[in-house]
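Hey,

Quick one before I head out. I ran the complex with glutathione overnight. Inputs first:
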Amino acid sequence: MGGAQLELPSGARPGVCVRRSFRAHAGDQPRRPPGPIPVPGTMKQESAAPNTPPASQSPTPSAQFPRNDGDPQALWIFGYGSLVWRPDFAYSDSRVGFVRGYSRRFWQGDTFHRGSDKMPGRVVTLLEDHEGCTWGVAYQVQGEQVSKALKYLNVREAVLGGYDTKEVTFYPQDAPDQPLKALAYVATPQNPGYLGPAPEEAIATQILACRGFSGHNLEYLLRLADFMQLCGPQAQDEHLAAIVDAVGTMLPCFCPTEQALALV
Ligand SMILES: N[C@@H](CCC(=O)N[C@@H](CS)C(=O)NCC(=O)O)C(=O)O
């Protein structure tokens, strides 16, 4: 996967979808998990994730595919969780930006990618919130990329993850006055894996304790936090920041000192 830093378009628009500051402090900046953050738009054509079973034969998301002017075959897919750093489908273009009217919440349980049946992990979904704003990456798929991406995401998101599709309006960071219609995968409270709200300290504890076929739940949290750091000061997510802060507070308990391990 691409190894460069995420190069964000310069000229971030202050005042666009701004929330209170992201509470990461210099001393406890979320450490980048192993491996570089791939740069959306420069990743080579990806094959399906190694842990993804063969694609389902029925890639029929419930939403009508949102179309924008121009290429009738083109489709934009909005990622705001693991799709931000691991889309794993071929795409023609990508944009960093945000959707309004939604807040991101770690309220979806995950018993495959970042958890197990006994210890479900927590991954993100979108909560309808009139004041909300969620930053992520929109990927444009064209031609035969469309059916391949939808087949893959139908398995990864819907079959394995309990997500459904929803049309959203995406505002590119570098052109918020030229919004795009996009398809998003959202886990609603009606899906069996939905966990709903919990104190952010409890969510942090669950994330620290869980892992699944795609890796540790902590990696999922820190890669998302890394993306938000790279989006710049105008991109805020207080829920994510509070969970990262809680993890930072608890990590010393999970990472005994050398003395505690009698290594000195
Ligand atoms: N639909 C959201 C969330 C997607 C998400 O995190 N889905 C889980 C499925 S439960 C996933 O694909 N995980 C893969 C991973 O954790 O690497 C997005 O657009 O990013």
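The chain has one domain: 38-254.

Talk tomorrow,
K.
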